[in-house]
Amino acid sequence: MAKDEIKKLLENSKKVIEQDHEDFSKSIKSDLASFKKKTLG
Question: What gap in Å lies between CA 15 and CA 7, rounded to an integer?
Fold first, then answer.
């Protein structure tokens, strides 16, 4: 019982972390792109 609950919690945490990382990467890339536009433009 407890093992299954822990396993579910870990799986959910992993999904959340992956999503956060993806969002973070996208935001960094867009920041970089806008920064390049400002400095080169």
Answer: 12
* Closest listed residue to residue 16, CA positions, set 24, 27, 6: 24
Which amino acid is it at 28?
I
Range list of H helices, 1-41: 2-40
Closest to 24 (Cα-Cα) out of 14, 34, 16, 35: 16
Is the Cα dihedral 14, 17, 22, 23 positive or negative?
positive
The predicted structure's pLDDT at residue 41: 76
As a dihedral over the C-alpha atoms of residue 27, residue 29, residue 30, residue 36, rounded to 10 degrees, the angle is 140
Predicted model pTM: 0.67
